[in-house]
């Protein structure tokens, strides 16, 4: 059940269940990122990136290596202070990007809790990593709400948003699926549950499954940071 607009959830209170999508949605690639589960989503991304099938975990990475992907090339979205941010703003740091919404009852808080654990495991290397949460629900996720939501996990996390057109364009660029699902007088959102990791040079390198644990993600980020040293 979604949370009421007037009763925002404790973002760390609930664990994850996979997002579901109707069978008809599985006929299109973007929707397959949700409907087919992690294995299907990663295989689809691997094919787009020229990485082959599920065996594209290479170079010692725990997550799928999608180096050379021709998507996720940039974004132009506002931070909670109204400043437009792009990939260029984060050069020199590894990025971990996730798309979600603040009223998400399970997948989003679980993913951001994992990201917080990753930062703790990285120790001083965390200073070279930026976690970015991009909302797919800009109608409800105001700048102030995004700021408070991300701070609940880690003060260093950054929430970004755009208007409806910018949100759609950014999701399309990242091959991310999202859609409104009516729930009585309100709605929830189905959306892709993958995270994306960039190296400090600003190149998209990894697709991180929702099921990956904090140590796996931390190991991959350490490797990306080591490559840049």
Description:
The structure is a single chain. By secondary structure, this protein is α+β, with helices and mostly antiparallel strands. The protein has one domain (66-228): Glutaredoxin (3-Layer(aba) Sandwich). It is 30% helix and 19% strand. It is built from 6 helices and 10 strands; from the N terminus they run H-H-E-E-E-E-H-E-H-E-H-E-E-E-E-H. The strands form 3 sheets. Strands 1-10-9-4-5-6 form a 6-stranded mixed sheet, with helices on both faces. Strand 4, helix 3 and strand 5 (129-135) form a beta-alpha-beta unit. Helix 1 (29-35) packs antiparallel against helix 2 and helix 3 (107-122) crosses helix 6. The protein starts with 28 loop residues before the first helix and ends with a helix.
Top keywords for this entry?
single chain; 229 residues; alpha+beta; Glutaredoxin; six-stranded mixed sheet; two-stranded antiparallel ribbon; 6 helices; 19% strand; globular
User: What's the number of domains?
Assistant: 1
CATH fold-level label:
Glutaredoxin
Q: What's the gyration radius in Å?
A: 16 Å
Please give the share of residues in helix.
25-40%
The order of strands across the largest sheet is 1-10-9-4-5-6
Helix-strand topology string: HHEEEEHEHEHEEEEH
CATH superfamily: Glutaredoxin
Average residue pLDDT = 83
The number of helical runs is: 6
Counting DSSP E segments of at least 2 residues, the number of strands comes to 10
Give the class from helix and strand content and strand pairing: alpha+beta
The biggest beta sheet is recorded as:
6 strands, mixed
Termini separation comes to 45 Å
Secondary-structure arrangement, i.e. CATH architecture: 3-Layer(aba) Sandwich
> Which percent range describes the beta-strand content?
15-25%
């Amino acid at each position: 059940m979604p949370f009421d607009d007037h009763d925002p959830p404790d973002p760390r209170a609930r664990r994850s269940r996979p997002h579901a999508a109707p069978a008809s949605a599985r006929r299109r690639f973007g929707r397959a990122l949700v409907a087919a589960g992690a294995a299907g989503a990663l295989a689809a991304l691997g094919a787009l990136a020229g990485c082959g099938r599920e065996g594209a975990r290479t170079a010692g990475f725990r997550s799928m290596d999608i180096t050379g992907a021709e998507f996720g090339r940039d974004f132009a979205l506002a931070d909670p202070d109204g400043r437009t941010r792009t990939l260029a703003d984060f050069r020199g740091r590894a990025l971990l990007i996730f798309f979600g919404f603040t009223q998400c009852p399970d997948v989003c808080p679980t993913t951001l809790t994992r990201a917080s654990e990753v930062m703790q495991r990285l120790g001083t290397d965390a200073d070279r990593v930026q976690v970015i949460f991009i909302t797919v629900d800009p109608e409800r996720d105001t700048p102030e709400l995004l700021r408070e939501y991300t701070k609940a996990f880690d003060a260093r996390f950054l929430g970004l948003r755009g208007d409806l057109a910018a949100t759609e364009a950014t999701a399309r660029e990242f091959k991310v699926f999202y859609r409104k699902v009516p729930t009585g007088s309100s709605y929830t959102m189905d959306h892709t549950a993958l995270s994306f990791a960039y190296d400090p040079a600003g190149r998209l390198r990894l697709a991180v499954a929702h099921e990956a644990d904090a140590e796996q993600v931390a190991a991959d980020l350490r490797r990306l940071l080591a490559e840049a040293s």
